[in-house]
Fold these 4 entries.
Entry 1:
Amino acid sequence: MSDLLEIFNTMEYGPAPESPAAVYAWLDEHQRKFGQFINNQWVHVEGADTYPSIDPATGEKLAETSQADQAVVDQAVAAARNAQKDWEKTPGRERARYMYAIARNIQKHHRILAVLESMDNGKPIRESRDIDVPLLARHFYYYAGWAQLMEKELHDYQAVGVVGQIIPWNFPLLMLAWKIAPAVATGNTVVLKPASSTRLSALMFGEIVAEAGVPPGVVNIITGSSKAGSMIVTHPDVDKIAFTGSTEVGRILRRQTAGSGKRLSLELGGKSPFVVFEDADLDSAIEGVIDAIWFNQGQVCCAGSRLLVQENVAETFIAKLKDRMGHMRVGNPLDKCIDMGAIVDKKQWDTVDGWVKVGQSEGGQVFQPDIDMPEKGLFYKPTLITNLEPAAETVQEEIFGPVLVSQTFRNPEEAIALANNTRYGLAASVWSENINLALDVASKIKAGSLWVNCTNLFDGASGFGGYRESGFGREGGREGLHEYLRPTWQERPRPEFAVPESEEAINQWGTAVPARPLMPNGDGRKSDGVDRTPKMYVGGKQARPDGHYTRAVLSPSGDLVGQVGDGNRKDIRNAVEAAHAAHTAKPGWAMRHGYNRSQILYFIAENLSARKDEFAKRLRAMTGKSAKDSQAEVEASIDRLFTYAAWADKYGGTVQETTLHGITVAVNEPIGVIGIACPDEEPLLGFISLMAPAIARGNTVVMIPSQQYPLTATDFYQVLDTSDVPGGVVNIITGDRDHLTKTLVQHEDVDSIWYFGSTEGSYWVEYESAVNMKRTWVGYGLPRDWFDAEQGAGETFLVEATQVKNIWVPTGE
Ligand code: NAP
């Protein structure tokens, strides 16, 4: 070991080890063997399989943990269920006190939590002590506040119920906080499963919960393999699954929960760009890169793992970066002067190393600095790979380790195109001293967190979550509350649908034989003159159905009320293309300001109002409703257009009160192209209640009107034509609902599907959406009162029409 004088002379870091004594004492107290934490007690199951917790830096076995089987999962879910009703009824101000007690206890046990986290995961104590544990406490403080305010501020909502939560190994405590804090604050109870390689800190957290006096059963923590995870996901008494992990497993969960009525939020993988413009403060940006990719050994979902540097500064920047990498310190995670600790386990180490070899084989130049490395333990050098093509696998796939790939760009357009050239969309970092440029680029990159001249910032007050295959749902902030709340009018949907046993069934769903002439049962055609068959509406123009098939629309008494085109896959593809073009046009629908969109919605309402008698008559003829009910539906539709004209410029976002010295803005961005399958009940009101919020918030839509009663929707395109709606913003394809929906769900360029058809269709929409993890909102074939202000126009419609992007901008010199 160096003596003081030597350290002084060389100015090298001396060793600064953190003591593991308290952690060892805790492990010994448990005889280094843990059971399951259920009902605030340790449950030891006789003969249960066990799994070792290993310190990746030393290879030392820290403890044995138990593998949950079905009986354990059932016991934990039953405990959560028993506790849930009382917990939900506990006044918010009391729940807030429990949350506060948890937060305080975290602070009181700060050090042991940090040391345990570093020993179990391999992350530097500097990070677990200064980032993970403080953020753990922060989340419980933040959501204690929402528990206190819930009755007043969220009175239209209730708890979802029992929540199954599954987390990964990279931030065991932080992921736990993101999941448990909002859930229990809002009256839910939880069963949480940590990842196999990092279980210990979650188990210690269980003791903290018990110490805080939280009622038994509110927080249950069970350890087990992916099989136990699957048992939680498929448990019939679980009302929601909140998952953080890989996109691959997220896809499995989407399919397993399809059609069950369980809520699902998915926080998945990423390959986030780190964009450096020529006018950036390059030295600051270098420190930014170090933090972006080598924080937690690069095992960070939002790691800035794709470096994009403007061509004319790239050589200088890469040279500086290599030099800086040469000063990184890799070693014992419990040493306070260490930059990078150990990779979590051997399997992950091999995966990372495998990817570096792929990079080499793809023609990449691999750079690893000549730095001291520990002789044993799962350490990996910080690695930079240059000279890769944009389509290279190492550029496209998440490596989840200390490996940075780098590319160059010439101008902002190219930077944005490269940044968005990914199936993910979790985060991005933009570096430029030109604030106008930086914010413009930030607004155009499709990702949930945008850091301007900073990186990897998190806070309880700001939501975190992905676009596209990075998942859906947000954790943190007010937006994170929606994941754990259900409108008060709505029961937990429990659709009765037997899940098909074979995957072959997917080929069957949505198959349809094109329509043919239909003999009316009644008196025949009920029309007052010349035959008029409406066409489809695509890109602002009437379009004949591609297949040249026509469907009859019959009244309840069997009279022929009219005919519409019978759409097919090609019609849907044309409509998606038109919707996409309207979205990306310059300026696209999303880029128009809210004032403009609101004026257009008012204009639609005005034009519908001018023809209200005609629409009422049509409704009456199609549905057999009374004249009064038909008029009421038209009036309610006009009112709904007014509602969303109002919301068009009032739901843009908020300033978040994070700990950043600067500004964190939550922007409610449109989702993109939404495919909407409308209900048969209230064919006009249902259509407008779904279309209006979507377009008010800047989305473009492909509407599949009521299959049974489509004529008010086809009449409606004349209203759109006269209301200044740009072509492609609303596209209308008539035909078999499920047949058309299937093409929409499978389409890569559709960002979200809203489906209000059958129970079976709801299942398939959720199941098939896993292909590219598009967002879905389905009705499970359950009734909904479209006239009701909450059911037909509640906040859910706005939430479903938007995705939150948080932009972080530090201020000061
Ligand atoms: P993972 O393999 O998907 O595992 C995550 C969790 O799911 C673990 O608890 C795992 O249990 C469990 N699991 C695995 N298969 C399952 C199944 N079929 N059913 C139910 N549960 C199952 O991911 P990981 O390797 O632990 O974590 C790395 C990934 O997480 C990366 O892709 C990263 O980007 C992502 N991540 C995302 C965020 C975000 O907020 N978006 C944050 C952190 C990490 P076992 O450990 O027992 O296998």
Entry 2:
Amino acid sequence: MSSWRDTTCGALRASDAGKRVTVAGWADTRRDHGGLVFVDLRDYSGKVQLVINPERAPAAAERAHEIRNEFVLQAVGEITPRSPEAVNPNLPTGDIEIQVDELTIVSRSDPLPFQIGDDVDEVLRLTYRWLDMRSDRMQRNLRLRHTVIQAIRRVMDELAFIDVWTPSMTKGTPEGARDFLVPVRLQPGRFFALAQSPQLFKQLCMVGGLDRYYQIATCWRDEDLRADRQFEFRQLDLEMSFIDREDVLDVLERCVVASFESLGREAPPTPFERVTYAEVMRKYGTDKPDRRFGLEIQDATELTRGSTFGVFAGAPVVRYLVAPRAFSRTELVRLEEIAKEWGAKGLAYLVNDGGDVRSPIAKFLSEDELAKLAPVPGSTALFAAADEATVSRVLGGLRTHLGNELDLADPQRNEFLWTIDFPLFEQDEESGRWTFVHHPFTAPMPGVEGSFEADPGSALSQHYDLIWNGWELGSGSIRIHRAEVQQAVFRVMGLDEAAQREKFGFLLDALRMGAPPHGGFAMGIDRFVALMAGEPDIRQVIAFPKVSSGSDPLTGAPTSMSNRVLKELGIKSLIDPDSIAGP
Ligand code: ASP
């Protein structure tokens, strides 16, 4: 037992009455009645009321007048039941108080820039993160994070995964983002990339016979920061040998269930539904649908083939959504703007506000079309007519927007989903080049190994994503374990033999020396925990996150470097250090 305390504040109960204890913590609130001073003393476990009575402890009472919020105190005293009218039913320790005999002011506090727990500007919270951390919200979130990670580690351990550390400073790892680079003083002009993920190392662990690898790995990606993105984040990264897709999905489902249970919550039923990429795109227009609400995309392509409305008749695909609201003109103008942001040329609609169907296109539609497409009273059908990808993007974007705008999602529901059977490649619209959908190490579907090179656009892959309420929790795949197949993928991506060697020679060598079949997954811990904590963004579950400009308001990083430091690294900056303003 430490000399500073022999109990935490929040642990005390009526059954402790009569005990003499030493407690320590922060002065949460203080009520000075001139004679008696009451202090709510707080530590991570909760609060307890101290009563400092000049008749009982004159020296302590003298000192108590100096106490201000967030002073660190240590008190020795006796636990006594509160008088019935003073009981606070809202506080777990509300039946008792501590009659103080000795009081020490351990540490003082300057006046605070904000009161602990106040809903203030986030930059202010992050500038003084150590104060913000004392709030119930941050204490709850960081502890919840710990609990969830421990539960996941237990599952990993039970399933015989071993925790292996892989390098952060490495060669570029293609996960589709930009790399953060690290200059190397000993080799001027050369750079490490910070690992976007441990992808290739975990595969090499499989070639190395480790069989089951995992790591709560830090990953670095130079991308714009968003609610669910930081430059650096952590993922449950895992890889397994001699397995099929279902084995990997099962491990992840166990982690999710164990995480819910570790928090005393009812776990979602498993197995989670597996839906093909083609189907989610058709129904929801996105590969990460929020299925807490319906609003499924419907198809009108067949129906409108011979339409006298040329826009429909001429479009490769015509699909629509029926929103449960008869939108006004102004609302429709706004929705059209959103549809255009997603690539639509315009937005055709049929509104039924209880009377006639309101629509500039109604007069072009046949009776049959109208009978089938006109929405029920109080709703609006919104159409997209274009190529399939555009239609999905537009209606997917509108669906997500309407889900938020009309508050369609039931907050009590948890909808987990596996999206499976992704395409192997996608074509860059501008350059026409083929690029991977997941990463280049993802295996094609069995059966297309021999044909995908000739027809990359139609090959499916063994890539899968885990989705929770519209958030992508993570991705994984069965990997390529044969060098010839890997080389064919590289060729489709336009890498000739020399480029393959230069970038991925070590991988090809490994695949040629007894690589077992393997696959794995990575789940974003920050996203998972944020959703578990009911938080709207991952910054709330990260101890020291960065703000959207990419800065850390607490330390002021990133900062400029003097030319002397840069020179040592062999770097000449195009930016004058003096021209760089503070954060
Ligand atoms: N390396 C991938 C990622 O970070 C996950 C995986 O395929 O295991 O998204």
Entry 3:
Amino acid sequence: MSKNRINISMPSLTDAKIRRKLGVETIKYELDPKYKDLGKGKTYYIFTYGCQGNEADSEVMAGILESIGYTKSDDPFMSDLVLLNTCCIRENAEVRIWGVLGQLKGRRKNNPDMLVGICGCMPQEESATKKIIESYDVDIIFGTHNRHNLPKLIYQAYFTKAKVVEVLSNEGNILEGAPKVRELKHKAWVNIMYGCDEFCTYCIVPYTRGKERSRAKEDIINEVKELVKEGYTEVTLLGQNVNAYGKDLGLDYTFGDLLYDLDKTGIKRIRYTTSHPRDLDLKTMEAMRDCRSVMPQLHLPVQSGDNDILKIMNRKYTHEEYMAKVNKLRELVPDISLTTDIIVGFPGETEEQFERTLELVKEANFEGAYTFIFSPREGTPAFKMKDDTPESVKHDRLERLIALVNEGYLRGNERFLGQEVEVLVDGESKNGEGMMCGYSRHLKLTHFKSNDLSLIGKLVKVKITEVKTWFMIGDLVED
Ligand code: 5AD
Ligand code: SF4
């Protein structure tokens, strides 16, 4: 607004589309000593929206902030630095963020020295960054490729009192060695790759997150070994398309190989997300069968069950090919729990095409799904596609789909009734006094009677006595 602006760099969707063959830069994090006490005596708060990738990025930003003296605050509106780590995958994700920015505007009156920063995916969009600069009282704007510059950006904002904008629309880099403050002590996110080269026509991610780039396997394996030493029980391997792991490195080493190697680290539980059905290969399925640490659960987004829609979405597989992978998986890991993502109301989707999705949901026997109405994202091919399906029809489809998906959730829990399951305990349950909860190997939320807080982070056995759509209830089995 009236503030000066240091325009270090602005986003460009045109640049963000470019994929070159050039090698990816690995940045070894080093703190410039001049920033070492920048946050001394000051507090910070990070709001995190969107996917697990953002949660992992926030842990890195928290690590960087604490390394320069900041301490975490409980009250976002009274802290010295507030960061909003944003998501722009669908319009409603952005709407929430505009709301929080609005709230911050008012609160800033009580705390005029507060610095407000916005980062993550939203600033990577040209139109969003323009709107933030023009209409909101934000001091620092940066994107997904430069969180390692956070101390520099804070420094500039403090000492120039100007609005600092640094959004890079390049293909991204790999950040190694940055400090992290992990949210939990028993479950950890481990990035194995960044970016996406799939370019599904509805999706903004390839533009906001840059090109597919894999971390070196040694760095990943060492991180997991460290986590084992620190007492972690579970890791979730993260990437937009983890099944493409290693392709960019040009080595004869794939995601399946990585699973076999990580199994040897001694970590008790390995999960991974997200998978692209086209890249899910036999070796990965075999690793799921062979490695006890790889959990019998998979999130495998299908998006639609109709071949024409899948084609226009640029998903590069058919209904039949998807089902062939599901059937192979079930052959190798018979008790696997499958979940998925589905978009309804993609431009031009007919009733018949939607019914093909319902058929696939039944055939695949999903035990859960995230369901979305198509949301046009500026800069993506689908944004310009003719979309004449009335909103009411889209909502009706979504409701029918959710009803079917919910039957799957319940069926998925019912199969454990009367059985003993292994649960990694997360903490006290919100489901009632004297109850604790955690997740089973199949990623089923499980509640059990106990108030023994020393169980947090431990693996326990629970005998399931009751199931609902969203969770299971059982009794702790003493050894
Ligand atoms: N509209 C609706 N849903 C979308 N997703 C991605 N882009 C869009 C969009 N433009 C969904 C997909 C993806 C999940 C993370 O979000 O289902 O798998
Ligand atoms: Fe988006 Fe498709 Fe990449 Fe997933 S695979 S992040 S839906 S472009």
Entry 4:
Amino acid sequence: MFSLVGVRGAFHPGDDREVFTKVLIANRGEIAVRVIRACREMGVATVAVYSDLDRDALHVRLADEAYALGGQTAAESYLDTEAILSTIDRSSADAVHPGYGFFSENADFVRAITDRGVTFIGPSPETIEVMGDKISARLAAEQVGVHSVPGTTDFITEPEQVRAFGAEHGYPIAIKAAYGGGGRGMKVVVDETAIEDAIESAQREAMAYFARDEIYMERYLTAPRHVEIQVLADAHGNAVYLGERDCSAQRRHQKLIEEAPAPDLPDEVRTAMGEAAVAVALGCGYTNAGTVEFLYEDGEFHYLEMNTRLQVEHPVTELVTGLDLVEQQLRIASGEPLDFTQDDVTISGHAIEVRINAEDPAGGAFLPSPGRIDSLRLPDGFGVRFDGGYEAGDEISQFYDNLIGKLVVWGRDRDTAIRRTLRALGEMDIRGVATTIPADVAILEHPDFQAATHSTKWVEETLDLSDVGSSIDPSDDGDDEEPTVRKDMSVEVDGKRFSVSIWVPEATPAAGRAPSRSKRSGARRGESGSGEVTVPMQGTIIKVLVAVGDTVEAGESVCVLEAMKMENTVAAGKSGTVTEVRVLPGDSVGSGDIVAVVD
Ligand code: MV4
């Protein structure tokens, strides 16, 4: 933990406004680190929370105070409301920053903390609820004259409704889950003959994912770009837009690269989209930082939904506007009015963010690659920023989002920014886990990306990743480093964490290195010869591929698990007969849960 020299409490050179005294960050990884940094600059004390696996994580090391939540999985730790509420009490934090994911869009959590007189750094629970429901979010935009893709806000009950819509608007048609989101359960109807099947499978999937089977429809845009507007709104009725981000380079709803501004967007579209986003924000009483998502195709934009949180890709907006969005969030949440207007917002140059995940993109597979980061060399130089959640020696756990960090690069124009991003990626060297860097390089070097002719379909349908190799070098067992003499350790006293340093003789076994990742993953593979088929991470079962009595081979898929927005097959560890199947599609499972037994 750092000790801050100087006086505690918010200070702003040149004025005497007060924000918060102590902010609890209800998150982990890079976003927790990002928030801690902004708080430190503002003179606000920080409180980290941590799971058992994160006792020594970077966000914990950087915060002024840190408290154990207990547990390993997100559900047992970062999503344990009671554990977080009691940490708020113990630490006397006066505000909570939720980061993204976890409790960031959870209205019940917001009510629970505000009931205790603690401020939530985000919008009101009512706004979160309106935007969390697809149809009410669509109606909220419609009310202020902002149009979604042509469609209906009625539930589909009869195939005839879809046939009539197709006759009027044409095909393809998207059938979506009314209480869904994230593209899950969306079905595309290409012509009249496919209506019945699409309705049936959309309802089935909506039920499996969201436990409600109401569906509605829209015209389906075949190759749109994903353009989103960053907004800031204060509690005094002021709202501004801070330009847009293009997030079209995505795979299975997982964004890979984002940029600002959106390339080749006509200025009048940019302005109209910004004004539409502000209208939506003001219309729903929005406060704090938010993002309004649009699809852009053939010169027209269509409202999609509003994200009521700070987003992963917020730094590209920071680089082109010069504004610190987390600082703005704290000021807004503490009741300050925005101290600038729309006319003061200028966009300079171009920014690109590359998400660096611990996933192996070899052959386009993007398989999770948890493990210890043996070494981490970061790029530097003009226009280069790295927002990371880990340092060398830290462990990427299978239980959480595997984002190692984000490389965010500024250039005076898009070409400069692309070249600089490639240069910076070339300097980066991560050992011990595979990373998405080879796929990021393939995207940035591709003529379609450079010409900005790509759409949201491009990575999945056009980009050929079959030649992309793994970033992990199998000959490198990570054992070539000398052990360090000083050891920094943490002790926990009554659930509160303290850092201590001890110096140990180099030669004692206590100073020995942790086993290398390759050895440990070998051991993990050894365990999988058991007849109990377990899931490697928390998620939702979307398909069960075997039934009791089936014979399976070792390595054969038993079910499909959706986790971290990706489909993962869960394979049998040994050959034999299936004697038990313990899950159904739609079931939520936690890491280590047994889905089937093979005898
Ligand atoms: C669409 C669409 C095309 N037409 N709706 C996917 C996530 C969810 N938020 C909405 N999504 C889409 N809705 C109509 N009427 C295409 C997508 C879509 C998409 C949207 C944004 C970013 C990436 C995407 C990838 C595939 C599909």
